[in-house]
Amino acid sequence: MIGQPALRYYLLSLGCPKNTVDSEGMTMLLGGAGYRGTAVPEEADVLIVNTCGFLAAAQDESLAALRELALTKRRGQTLIAAGCMAQRAGARIVAEVPGVDGLLSTRRWMEIVPLVQGLRGGKRGRRFERYTLLGDPERPPLDRTPRPPVIGGSAYLKISDGCNAPCAFCAIPGIKGKLRSRPQAAIVAEAAALVASGAQELILIAQDTTDYGRDLGQADGLPALLQAILDRLPELRWLRLMYAYPSHVSPRLIDVMASDPRVCHYLDIPLQHGHPAVLQRMFRPSNVDKLLDTFAALRAAMPDIAFRSTFIVGLPGETEEEFNSLLAFLEQIQFDKVGVFTFSPEPGTPAAAMPDQIAAAVKAARYARAMALQQRISLARNQAQVGRVLDVLVEAHGELDENAVRSEDWPQQQGDDSLQRRGGGETKSVALARSYRDAPEVDGLVVIPGELPAGQMARVRITGAMEYDLMGEKVTSNE
Predict the structure, then answer these.
(1) Among candidates 17, 29, 22, 47, which has minimal Cα distance to 112?
(2) Residue 413 CB: number of other CB atoms within 10 A?
(3) Model confidence, pTM
(4) DSSP states along 148-201
(5) Lower CB density within 10 Å: C or N end of the chain?
(6) What rounded mean pLDDT belongs to the chain?
(7) pLDDT band at 344 (very low <50, low <70, confident <90, very high)
(8) Dihedral of CA 318/324/330/333: which sign?
(9) Are 49 and 12 in contact (CB under 8 A)?
C-alpha cells in the first residue's frame, strides 16, 4: 500500500562461500521486491538464517542462531530457516525451535520472496502457519542467478550446484542433489557484470568445479569455461579456482591455467587422505601414484603454484599406520595450505554406519599431530616467499601493535603464528591484503605498513613470514 513503510529483513549467513553466494542472491531478490535490509534483528519484520547442515557442529551452530532469534522474537516478526540444514534436517529445526515459521531449502533459495509473501499474507500481527519450500523446484533458474556483490575487490562466481561424487563421509549430495551446471553464457555474463562493478578477482566455486558441464554433455567443460571468461574480460586481474576434484584435473585444465597469467597459480584440491586403503573406504580416488603425478604435472607447468587441500583424520578403521602414511604424504607433497578435520559420523552417510569407529580422544590427538606438522611445512613455504615481489589485492585496513611482530624477525620464528602474541607498543595503520597464494576467508594475509586503497591491487616486496601470514612493503618502482 502506498505510504506504508517497506518491510525490513535481517539475514544471517552461516557456512561456506557457496552459502554466502546464495545469501547475497536472496538479498538482491528481497531488495528488488522492495524489502529493506537491517543489521539489527530487533528492527526487522522478517528474520532469516541461511543455515549450514554439512557437519553436526554446523547444525548445532545453526540451531543456536535460530533459538537466539526465536527467544527474542516479538509479535509480528517472521522467522525463516533457510539453507542446507532446512533441506537436510527441517524436521529437527521444527521440533527444536518452535518459533520458526518457515523453511526454505538450499535448492530453492531463489523463491525467498514468494515464501516471505506467503508467510506474511499481507497482514501484520497474524498467527503464522509454517510454510515450507523444500526439495527441487520444477525448473531451477540457474541461468538467472542474482550476482553477489563485490567485496574488497573480490567476488564469488558459482558455476554449478550439487555433486555427483559418492564420498562415504559426505552429506552434500543429499542436501544439494545431483550436479546442475549453469549455462556458460550466463556465467560469462555474470562475470562481466561483476568486473564492471569493480571486481579485480573472480573466484569460481561449486561443490566440484572440475565436474562443471558433465551434466550438459561436456566431459571436460571447466577449461572451456575458464577460456571463455578470460576471452570476454581482458581487464580481469585474477581468476581463482576452488574445490577441484583430484581425478578431474585434466591436462587441458593445467594448460589453460598455465598459459594465462590472470589465472592464479593456486589450486584447492580436497584430497581427504593420503593412504589408498582409507581413500577406498571413503569412496575417493585411491591411486596415490596418480595423485602424485597430477601434482608433479601442475608444478612442472607452474613452478610457483600454491596448493591448498583438506584432510579427514579418524575415519572408522583408520589405523596408526594409515595415519602415519597421511603424515608422510603431507611431507612429500609440501602443501602451502591445509585444513584438517576430525571425522564426524553424519546420519545417512555410509561412513556413519562403518564398524571400528575411532575414539574422540584418538581423533583429537591425530588432528593435533597433523596440524603441528603442517604448520611447520606452511612456515617453510611462507619463508620461501621472503624477497619476492608480488601483486596483492588490498581487502581492508587495520591496526597492528608494533611489538606484536617485527618483520625482520619473522623468517626466524618457528612457533609464533599470531600477530597478537606480543603487545604493549604503539599501534600502526596497516593494509590487509592477499597474494595469488591466498583465497579469501580460508587462507592468510599479507600485512603492509601504511594505508593502501581497499579493493585495488598493489605491488609489494615480501619481508617476513609466519605460518599463515606474510609481511610486505609497498614497491614504489617498476620492479
Answers:
(1) 29
(2) 17
(3) 0.81
(4) PPPBTTEEEEE-EE------TT--HHHHH-S-EEPPHHHHHHHHHHHHHTT-SE
(5) N
(6) 87
(7) very high
(8) negative
(9) yes
- Nine cell digits for residue 164: 555427483
pLDDT-wise least confident of 17-26, 217-226, 271-280, 347-356: 17-26
Of the candidates 146, 132, 20, 145, the residue with the CA atom closest to the CA atom of residue 87: 132
| Nearest by Cα to 284 from 260, 315, 325 | 315
Sign of CA dihedral 67, 60, 30, 10: positive
Provide the β-strand partners of residue 474.
Answer: 460
Number of neighbouring beta carbons within 10 Å of residue 57: 12
pLDDT at 147: 54
Bridge partner list, 429 = 399
Residue 479: its pLDDT value, please?
Answer: 60
Region of residue 441 (phi > 0: left; psi between -120 and 50: alpha; otherwise: beta): left
According to DSSP, the residues that pair with 51 across neighbouring strands are 83
Range among 35-44, 106-115, 150-159 rated most confident = 35-44
Residue 253: the pLDDT is 98
What is residue 124's predicted lDDT score, i.e. its pLDDT?
A: 39
Measured between alpha carbons, how far is 95 from 102 in angstroms, rounded to an integer? 13
User: Does 128 have pLDDT greater than 60?
Assistant: no
Burial of 369 per CB tally in 10 Å (0-12, 13-18, 19+): middle
Q: And the C-alpha cell for 201?
A: 578477482
d(CA 10, CA 233) in angstroms, rounded, equals 35
Q: What domains, with CATH codes, occur in the chain?
A: 8-133 (3.40.50.12160), 154-383 (3.80.30.20), 389-474 (2.40.50.140)
45: left (phi over 0), alpha (psi -120 to 50) or beta: alpha
List Cα–Cα distances, 275 to 3, 180, 255, 290, 326, in angstroms. Answer: 66, 31, 28, 13, 6
Task: Note whether 391 and 459 are within 8 A (CB).
Answer: yes
Residue owning grid cell 596440524: 371
